[in-house]
Design goal:
Low-confidence stretches: 72-76
CATH superfamily of the largest domain: Pseudouridine synthase
Number of helices: 8
CATH class of the largest domain: Alpha Beta
Radius of gyration: 21 Å
CATH architecture of the largest domain: 2-Layer Sandwich
CATH topology of the largest domain: Pseudouridine synthase
Mean pLDDT: 90
Number of domains: 3
Order of helices and strands: EEHHEEEHEEHEHEEEEEEHHEEH
Number of strands: 16
Shape: globular
Strand content: 25-35%
């Protein structure tokens, strides 16, 4: 059952809802609201269970009392304006497209930034996009951080979106990133298996969280050793927020140019090299096309700013 009071919506969980994740439960209960939007509302700390703020992973029990504050404000959709922003399309067919995302641009709008994102550009250039996640995330199946460049898959219809999401969930899409990491590596390859969750100390950051985090797997190979750093091929098997950045920082090798997770040494090297963002690029994708069954192998070379940085570092390493 549900009840509205002064803009607050409340639910008492019955037997049928017991055991369900809260984001799934609320998506079914609140009409015309996508699951991703529900997750955003939960992430804004406006949802409580029995008087306590919870995460989207919380599993309900019978008689739990759920309250959502400022329902009308939280449930209002972000108005997204189509914008004539250039898109670098690497692959395109009637089911999906793969673009090369430039650094400095958000994947989709947020309440604080509603323009100049990939979604604004997609809505201008394409009339047919998946609507599973709402207009504010039209076509978006996965994301790249604002200052990360590289390959991004876009779904052009709901069925393709569902199939791609399932492939990501089952780790059937192989992603390869190029990263420049601080410090020297004694090993040639490695695998980091540590759960990641929202930092308790800083809500803008993610951190290793043994008790509350979600499982995360990151493999890496050292491609080239340089002075005070190493060029890596990185293979994230899962897609947690900031995953590569958090994992590499935790083992003492933060990405050069990463302001959020970097160290003084890694930041100083970035300044010396003239690097204005984190050296992280989603360079390769390999997967089976969800509709045609074709093997897809796509590559996006590192952009000019990272290439210049690498050239400077190689010269520095020879001195």
């Amino acid at each position: 059952m549900s009840k509205k009071e002064n803009g607050t919506l409340s639910f008492i969980v019955d037997t049928a809802g017991s055991g369900h994740r809260i984001d799934k439960f609320l998506t079914e209960k609140i009409k015309d609201t996508s699951r991703s939007r529900i997750q955003d509302i939960i992430g804004s700390r406006k949802v409580q269970v029995n008087g306590k703020v919870i995460t989207k992973h919380y599993r309900l029990t019978e008689d739990d009392r759920i309250t959502i504050e400022d329902l009308l404000e939280n449930n209002s959709r972000i108005e997204v304006e189509p914008q004539n922003i250039n898109l670098k399309v690497v692959y395109e067919d009637q089911y999906l497209l793969v673009i090369s995302k430039e650094p400095g641009i958000l994947t989709h709008p947020t309440p604080s930034r509603r323009k100049d994102t990939i979604v604004n550009a997609l809505l201008y250039h394409y009339s047919k996009l998946s609507g599973l996640s709402g207009k504010e995330r039209a076509g978006i199946v996965h994301r790249l951080d604002k200052d990360t460049s590289g390959l991004l898959i876009i779904a052009r219809d709901d069925n393709t979106h569902r199939l791609l999401s399932e492939m990501f969930k089952k780790r059937r899409i192989k992603k390869t990133y190029t990263a420049l990491a601080w410090g020297s590596f004694s090993e040639n390859e490695g695998r980091i298996v540590l759960p990641i969750g929202r930092s308790r100390l800083d809500r803008k950051k993610m951190s290793i969280s043994i008790d509350r985090g979600r499982e995360a797997f990151t493999g890496f190979e050292v491609r080239e050793r340089l002075k005070d750093s190493a060029l890596l091929d990185v293979y994230p098997a899962t897609g947690r927020t900031h995953q590569i950045r958090v994992h590499l920082a935790y083992i003492g090798h933060p990405i050069i140019g990463d302001e959020l997770y970097g160290t003084r040494g890694s930041r100083d090297l970035a300044k010396e090299l003239g690097l204005k963002r984190q050296f992280l690029h989603a360079g390769k994708l390999k997967f089976t096309h969800p509709v045609t069954g074709e093997t897809m192998e796509l590559e996006d070379r590192i952009p000019g700013d990272l290439k210049k940085c690498l050239e400077n570092l190689r010269r520095r390493s020879k001195m």
